[in-house]
Structure formats: C-alpha cells, structure tokens
Amino acid sequence: MELIQHIKNFFPSTQRSKITGFETLKLNYSSDGSLKNLTETFGWPPNLFIILYTLLDYTDKYRLLVAPQSHFKWDDKLKLEAENAATEWNYFLEKEKLPNKSNIKIHLNNIFKSINMKKCIYDLLNQTEFCQSTFILVLSIDNVFRAKNIRRNELSDITPAEVASNMRAFMHMINSEGSLNLDLDLDNQGKDINLADNNTKYGFIAYKGLVPQSGLTINNLCQNLTYLKPNVAPEIIYSFDADNKFDSSSYNVLFIPWPLKVEDESFKISSIRPIETNRFFDFFDYEPNEPIFNEVMRMVRSAIISTIKRLGSIDLIVFPECAFSTKTFNKLKEKIYEHFGEDAPSILSGVYGKDEDGGINTASLAFTGIGDGYDTINQKKHHRWYLDRDQIRAYNLAARLDPGKKWWENIDISRRKLAVLTTPDGIKLCPLVCEDLARQEPVAQAVRAIGPNFVVSLLLDGPQLKARWPGKYATVLSDDPGSSVLTVTPLGMTLKSTGLGDPPSRVVALWSEQGKSAEEISIGEDGIGIALELKVEKTTNWSLFGTKQEKIILKKMFHSTIIDQYKDSNSNNLRTVLEKLLKDGGYNI
C-alpha cells in the first residue's frame, strides 16, 4: 500500500501535495473530516496519531521497539527526542502554533515529503529516517494526550491537551448546528466518541486505561491513546462528583441476583422470527412475568439499607442479564435517584423487552451526569444466546423447547457498541452481556485496546463456577489487558441448573483479578444481595516504548451476603428508613 493511500483510508479528501516544511501548521479545532491537505489535517495531533499508529499496526513494525533491525533501534536518544517533541506539542496546543525552530516540522517532513507519497509503506518503514520520525511522533502525541481524569485538585492540573479537546468539542458543537445552543447536545455531554477528525466509519481514536504487561501486540505500544476498528463503536462516558464526596480508596458494589426464581414459562417459542427456520433450528424469547414493582422496590431498599450500614457507601448497584423490563428499570432508577440525588450510585442492569427491531437484551448503565437525574446508556448484546440439547436439559426446559433443535435467542443484533464509564477516582467500568464475554470477536479487540480496569459481565447462566466458561474467559481479560472481572447471574438460574444431575447452587458471581485465581462468590441462605468492597490501588504499567505510568486497578477485599432484614416491612416504610439513614449522614461514613 502506498503512503498516500494509507492516509486516504482515514481522510479520503486529502490530496497529494508538494507541501514541505509544514511552516503554516496551526491548531485546527473545527474540522468536519473533509481535510484537503496534510497541513490542515495535522492541525489536530490525534489526526496524525491515527495515521501513524495504524501504519505501525498494519505493517507489524511496532515490534521493532523490542526487536530492532539494522536500520532501527529504539534507544534513550530517540526517547529523549520524543520527550522534546511532546514539549513542542504542548506549546502547539497552548499557543496554537509550533515554535519557530521546531523538530516536529522536521519529523513531519521526514515522513510526508512528496517523494514518499507513492512509496510502499513497508519499504518506508525499512528506512531509518522515516522509521525514527514515525515512532517519535507517535510517542510524543501519546505522551501529551494522557487519559483524562475528571477530578482535579486545582484548575492548574488541567493539561493543554484537555483544554484543547474541550475547545474542539465546543467548536464541533457550534459547527454541527450552525449556532450555539446550550441545550442542543445533552445526550453527548460527558462523552468521547472519537478524538480524531476522521469519519468514524474508518475507526476511532480513544483514551485507554490499562496496558497489557505480557505479550507483544499493538496494545502494548502506548499508554494513553488507542485505535479502535470501526466494527465496534466506543461510547466513553464520564460520571461526575461535584463535591468530591466519594472515598477514592475504595469502590463498593451491591449485587442483587434478581430474579430469585426463574419460571419455565419465561422461555417461549418465538411467534415472530427474524429469519426463516427449519426443523434443525428455531428462535426463543425470554419473557418473564412482570414483577410487582412495590415488592421489587422493597427488596432493593432493604438491600441498600443493609449495604450502607455495612460498607458506608455504594458506588455501583448491579443486576444480572434480563433482570428487568425497560419499564421496570426506568421506574427503579428514578426511585433510587430520588433517595440519593446527585450522590446516587451508578446502576448496571440487564434489561429485556421488545421494540420495532425485535427483542431487546441490553446492558443499561445509569450514572450521574451534569444535569438532574440519571444519564443512561444502553449497550445491546452483541451475540445471540444459543441453547443446545445439554443446556435445555440442564435448565429443565425440555417441556418448553424441543431438545432436538438448536434454539437461538430472538434479539436484535444491530450496531455493536462498547460503553466505558470513567469515574472521578479513575475506575473505567465496561459492561458486557453474557455471550459477549465468550465470543472474542468483535468486542474483545475493543476491550483490550481500551483497557478498562473493571469489566462486569451480566449473565443469564448457571452457577458461576471457575471451571465453567465464565471463569475461562474472565481470567483471559484479567491477564490481558489486566482488568478485574465480575460475572453475575440470577439466583433463579443457578437454582434451576439441576437437569444434568448437579445439585442446586447458590454460586451467583465470580471474581477474577490479575495475579490471582478466580474466586467463586455464593449467596447465603435467605440472602437477597452480595456486598463487595473493592480496593482502589495504583500499579505501574510499562509500554513497548519503555515508558512507565501509574494506572488504577481494583482488588477485592471481601464480600458478604446481604440478608433481607426488613422482609416484614412494606416499601413505603423502608423509604422512610432509607431517607433517614441518608439524612443522618449514614452515607459515606
């Protein structure tokens, strides 16, 4: 592939030119992706990053950092040049132009001079000058665009890249609407969709978290920025803590394994099918009976009260796959926000239902944004559940679904998305839904590239035994990129999994973290939830460039069963108990 064609893969409107020197390079905030020349393109550094990073990925030349050849060896001298280039990029982002004597201009000319445009990218990366400049510019931009943290002690801690990124987002908002309207884009506030200016159908540049500490892949290359293929669209979102109230040394999770009982009748043969079927396969729907909301709310309030008394605070409430209908989940999050207000914990739940595209199976993540109430993002399941003969028998469903057929879950499979919620204390929470944990494509590439430190997989599955499939795939992510992984399933499904001769199980969750074997988590008799106290720690990640950076990880401290201590109270009485507990300072003791 010629260099000019590689550039056009991301910026198709860019024309081959005889520009040399890049003397007119200025900071460009407001491109719409229709960039006409390289000077305009590189007026925003992530545009240069996407071209060079993917160049190294496509050619597999990033390995030269640790496997040098005769024409290139990464050493302390080149590393220092990259650090100096990062200083120049900071100047560029502050002053909106490069200094008069700029090494960045030299490196840009080494790569993009006219004579190189029609040359093969493999041949170019076998040239010393081209190769050195490519690595220097990639590292320098990665150094400048550090993964942002919302919480700052002082405004002076905000980096030039963050100031420029905020201005760029502001300019894009104006240009996309034609005029400034403060109410025009509330759905996208607090989100990063793509840090570069290319059309997202060609891929994304996003902030990353953890760097894999084993192996030799493109994900080992950088500390702060990564490239995502366009087959999975990232939605990187941020929760806010305006009063800096939360204890950043711990992260407390309440898991409620609802429903506590799963009826056979919840599994039904689909009356409407997305494609034609035959005698070998068919589709099923999961449609449990709608629970009485007051009873759901009574149980949730009871679990919240007991967890606050035990842990002092709750950062995240988790429910399994298909725990609630869309209607029930929306009512539930409204009630929880009424209690906590802007200090409300995030809520992650599996949600089922139907829409015009078919069945719904999503991970719904509610979090506190910049306005009143919860902001919510919905991530559809990427793969259909496939029920085979053994699973039908294991779950005692042979009277509902013919064991002689393959049964596929009747849900809509549309644009694949991957949500990552970043909290003020550096937690990067990434939800997955059941099959998405097991199927490596396409989501695994995106998860490893972004490097979340906390993956929560919502399952409608049997016991979470470490010898079963969830344990296998959770430990893979704990190794690369180093995520802590929590898999959760309804108690009703573990108790139902007796058809192959296994006893009823109360192992409803599995915890996996780097450096330790997976841990099974059981819920005690009469339990309605599990409280997990996680410790927020820092660890050192090294990149292929030889740079090190502190990253946030989660370690499990302990877990315990939450008993329904208020089973004789009604929901309204528990509302009063919870409100008094919060008012008296029982929250965040």
Provide an overview of this structure.
With 589 residues, the chain is of the alpha/beta class. 30% of the residues lie in helices and 23% in strands. The protein contains 16 helices and 22 strands. It has helices spanning 3-8, 38-41, 45-59, 76-95, 103-112, 121-124, 128-144, 160-177, 293-311, 326-340, 389-394, 435-438, 443-450, 469-479, 491-496, 571-583, and strands at 191-192, 204-207, 225-228, 233-238, 250-255, 267-269, 281-286, 316-318, 324-325, 346-355, 358-368, 374-380, 386-387, 406-409, 417-422, 428-433, 454-458, 484-488, 507-512, 519-522, 527-542, 548-563. It has an eight-stranded mixed beta sheet with strand order 1-4-15-16-17-18-19-20. Strand 11 and strand 12 form a beta hairpin. It is globular and about 75 Å long. Residues 150-155 and 179-190 have low confidence and may be disordered.
The radius of gyration over CA amounts to 26 Å
Strand pairing plus helix content: what structural class? alpha/beta
DSSP summary: helix tally: 16
- The 3D shape can be described as globular
Overall number of strands: 22
